[in-house]
Amino acid sequence: xxxxxxxxxxxxxxxxxxxxxxxxxxxxxxxxxxxxxxxxxxxxxxxxxxxxxxxxxxxxxxxxxxxxxxxxxxxxxxxxxxxxxxxxxxxxxxxxxxxxxxxxxxxxxxxxxxxxxxxxxxxxxxxxxxxxxxxxxxxxxxxxxxxxxxxxxxxxxxxxxxxxxxxxxxxxxxxxxxxxxxxxxxxxxxxxxxxxxxxxxxxxxxxxxxxxxxxxxxxxxxxxxxxxxxxxxxxxxxxxxxxxxxxxxxxxxxxxxxxxxxxxxxxxxxxxxxxxxxxxxxxxxxxxxxxxxxxxxxxxxxxxxxxxxxxxxxxxxxxxxxxxxxxxxxxxxxxxxxxxxxxxxxxxxxxxxxxxxxxxxxxxxxxxxxxxxxxxxxxxxxxxxxxxxxxxxxxxxxxxxxxxxxxxxxxxxxxxxxxxxxxxxxxxxxxxxxxxxxxxxxxxxxxxxxxxxxxxxxxxxxxxxxxxxxxxxxxxx
Length: 477
Fold this sequence. Notes:
alpha/beta; TIM Barrel; two-stranded parallel ribbon; 15 helices
C-alpha cells in the first residue's frame, strides 16, 4: 500500500528560532526573544522571574537566530532542492501586531510572510503555518498578563482574521498553537505567564489553557468561514508513556501521564472537557473560567487533523520514591533501561513512534500529521565544511520506517512528515546552536560567532532520495 501519493514530505522550523530580525520590519518584542542562553533560561521560561527586555549580562540567541529573515530565499531554494512538498513555519505574532493589541496590522510584517509563502509556491512547496509557536508579544504580557487574561482571545482573533484573509489561496494548512501542552511545563514560553508570590500556579495555567483552547476553536471557525479549503490542526508534544513495570500502580501512573498530555487534544478534537480532567481539576479546587458560549464554540469547531511532535517515548512510575530520570522535549521522564539516548539525554525509540501514532489515531480517528521529529546532535564539519551525519540518518530512517509500519500495517491515516529543524537553528529547550537538527549546516555558534554560511550535510542528499521515492528508499548509501 505504502504512503499516500500526495504525502507531504518536508521540514519544520519556528520563527523565534531562525528568523532573527527582531528589530526589522516594524516587529515588536516577544516572550521568546528574551529567553537567554545559560542558567537563567529555565527560570525565565518557567515564569519564575520577570524578564521582559534585553540586558547586557545575557546573550539572546533569538535576536539573530540564523538570519532567515534576510536569507529566506536562499533557505527555501535549498528546501526545494531536497524536494520538499511542504514547509512548516510559524508566524511571529509581533511582526503582524507589534504590541499585540493594535487595531491595524503592520503591513511590513504581512508583506514579509506573503513573500515567504510566494517563494514556497514558486517551487511547488505547500506552506504549513503554525499561527502561534510560543510567541506572545511582550506588551500583552506586561499590560494584560498574557494568556491568563481573557482579552487575549480577542487579540488572537484579530490576528487570525488578518492572516486567513490576507493569505487566502496562499496557505491551506494551519496549526493553531504549537505543542499546546507545553504550557504545563514552560508557562512563560508557552503562554506568556509570569507568577506572583504565593499565587496558585496551577489555577493560572489552566485558566490560560482554557483561553487558548477557546481561541483555537474560534480560529477553526473563522478559518472555515473565510476559506472552506482551509485545514486546521492542533499540535501536541507527544510521546507515549510506558509503565515502569507491569505493576498496576505503574500502569495507572502511565495512563494518568498520557491523559495530562491528551487533555488539550481531547478538547480540540472531541469538543469538550474530558470527565477525567474535570474531576481532577475539581479535586484540586481549580476553576475553569467558562464564559457564555464557550462550550458551544468548543463543541462545534473541532480541528480537521491532529499534528504532533515526537522525539521519544516516556516512562511513568507509580512509586513514591525517586527513580533515575532522563531529559526529554520539555518533559522529564523515568529512564528506560532498554533505550539508548542522544547527547542531550533524550532517549531514542523509533518503535515508540508507531505506538504513539496508534495511540493517537485510536483515540481520535482523525488524520495525523507528524510535524516534528529529529535528532539534536553536535555536528563536526570536516576541512571542507561538510558534515557526515550518519547518526542523524540512522535516527530518521528508523523513525520513518516505524511511521510507514503504522500506516501500512496498522492502517493509520497519515498526511505528512516534517522533520524538526530542517536547517540548523536555535534550540528552544537550551538556546544552543551546537544542538543541531538540520540537513543544512549553518556556521554559527552558541554566542553568535560565525559566517552564517549554509552547507548541505550528508543527510541533505539522503532526505532528497527519501522524498523522491516517497519513503520507499531510506537506505544510507
